[in-house]
Amino acid sequence: MKKGLFLLLLAFAFTACTSDSSGSRLEQEKMAQVLADIHIDEAIVQNMQTGNSDTALVLYHELSKKTLKKHGVDSTQVAESISSYVKDPAALVKLYTRVNKIIEERRTKASAKKP
What we know:
Elements: H1 2-16, H2 28-48, H3 53-71, H4 75-87, H5 89-113
């Protein structure tokens, strides 16, 4: 998941240099929910151990399409929002603090459901 996060941030950092989208970025809670789901999607694909990076990429894209649809956003909105957050390190730290909390809450909830 750390590798995926690094690649995600790196990709969006490049777009951060080209435009100022702070006015159109997704609000923090919505963005945190989207990113939590994206990182969970990454973990699911990573744990599948497909043995083929092409297969893993196809699976990840399918999961991420469903995630974006679930949240009513598109990849451009997410990319522009990440670009905006990358330009504001304090906001990015706050965002990822929330993302980590959401993931931990979901993990705890899932563990509680197991018999």
